């Protein structure tokens, strides 16, 4: 897929990739080492660092998702974003996709800080820093798992659930096997992605069921119209042949379609072996041609409450994140006060 195609199909994905690369180039211009940036430089450019993030710099929960620790880190996450983004963004919509990425990144960083803080209290850990889009990308991957489970399609294609599970499992196992990988960030991002994708999938299923019901009603109306037309002409039934279809008998299969849902209607006995005039209409008192397109159902939209459900879920998650940050923040303040 070219850059122009990606920008048209997944504009937010393109902008995120551009921001990753742009921030990395800005670091290089200011003298940051391309492969081994220092701790001070990473903190300066917005890395997630305890206790800074949980004290006066909560903005680091989001800024660190755009910062990468070295060229290989950038290339790995950039490829993952390109791979997942061009599928997930058209599926969920650009606005939901961006919110999904940001909230998953924030959720991953919060879980990382929570685990780090409690390891410090237990005497088994020390303050550290993290950076990278991995948490947000894992959230997108987890959301695609839900989409595959609910058989949500994009451009007529349904995701392969088995392949997605394998990809996600490899990332998690790699994180535990290689030292220095932010496992908590990966897990927190994935959990956030699951929580956001569930209401999106439920809305999709609700719309799908409503569309199926509308198509069933349209099919029945079409059948009734053709049968009524046939009965009014009192014509006997004939056996349909390939020759009749070639002479203009309209195919009555796959009349109605929505996404990947296709239905068929077997009504050939109502217009068998009919003769046609030059305009394609039935003559000799045979049943009148019934245009199936007139019975095609309108696209079904779910109620406003259902449409707002994913956004409501994201609002609740955001409020939960604020509370979580406040909780860790207060714990740190209490410890510092006790030390003083």
Provide the fold topology.
Blueprint: H1 3-9, H2 11-29, H3 39-44, E1 48-49, H4 60-63, H5 71-92, H6 94-121, E2 129-130, H7 134-149, E3 153-154, E4 157-158, H8 161-177, H9 183-233, H10 242-246, E5 253-258, E6 261-264, H11 304-339
Antiparallel strand pairs: 1-2, 3-4, 5-6
Helix pairs in contact: 1-2, 2-5, 5-6, 5-7, 6-7, 6-9, 6-11, 7-8, 7-9, 9-11
Number of helices: 11
Mean pLDDT: 79
What amount of the residues lies in strands? 5-15%
Cα Rg: 29 Å
Structural category:
mainly alpha
State the strand order across the main sheet: 1-2
Strand count: 6
- Straight-line N-to-C gap: 58 Å
Query: Percent of residues in helical segments?
Result: 55-70%
Question: Overall 3D geometry?
Answer: elongated
């Amino acid at each position: 897929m070219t850059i122009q195609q990606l920008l048209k199909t997944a504009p937010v994905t393109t902008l995120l990739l551009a921001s990753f690369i742009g921030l990395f180039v800005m670091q290089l211009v200011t003298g940051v080492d391309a492969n081994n940036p220092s701790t001070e430089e990473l903190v300066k450019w917005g890395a997630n660092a305890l206790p800074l993030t949980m004290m006066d710099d909560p903005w680091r929960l989001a800024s660190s998702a755009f910062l990468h620790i070295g060229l290989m880190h950038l290339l790995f996450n950039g490829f993952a974003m390109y791979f997942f983004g061009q599928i997930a963004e058209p599926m969920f919509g650009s606005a939901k996709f961006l919110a999904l990425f940001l909230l998953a990144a924030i959720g991953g960083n919060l879980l990382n800080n929570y685990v780090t803080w409690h390891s410090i209290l237990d005497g088994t850990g020390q303050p550290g820093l993290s950076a990278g889009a991995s948490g947000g990308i894992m959230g997108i991957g987890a959301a695609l798992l839900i989409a595959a489970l609910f058989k949500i399609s994009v451009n007529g294609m349904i995701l392969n659930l088995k392949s997605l599970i394998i990809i996600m499992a490899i990332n998690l196992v790699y994180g535990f096997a290689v030292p220095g990988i932010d496992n908590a960030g990966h897990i927190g991002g994935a959990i956030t992605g699951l929580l956001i994708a569930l209401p999106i999938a439920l809305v999709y299923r609700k719309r799908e069921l409503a569309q199926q019901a509308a198509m069933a009603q349209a099919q029945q109306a079409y059948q009734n119209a053709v049968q009524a037309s046939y009965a009014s002409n009192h014509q006997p039934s004939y056996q349909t042949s390939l020759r009749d279809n070639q002479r203009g008998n309209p195919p009555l299969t796959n009349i109605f379609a929505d996404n990947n849902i296709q239905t068929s209607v077997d009504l050939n006995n109502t217009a068998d072996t009919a003769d046609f005039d030059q305009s394609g209409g039935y003559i000799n008192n045979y049943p009148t041609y019934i245009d199936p397109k007139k019975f095609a159902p309108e696209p079904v939209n779910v109620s406003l409450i259902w449409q707002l459900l994913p956004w409501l879920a994201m609002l609740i998650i955001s409020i939960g994140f604020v509370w979580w940050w406040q909780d860790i923040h207060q714990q740190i303040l209490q410890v510092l006060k006790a030390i003083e």
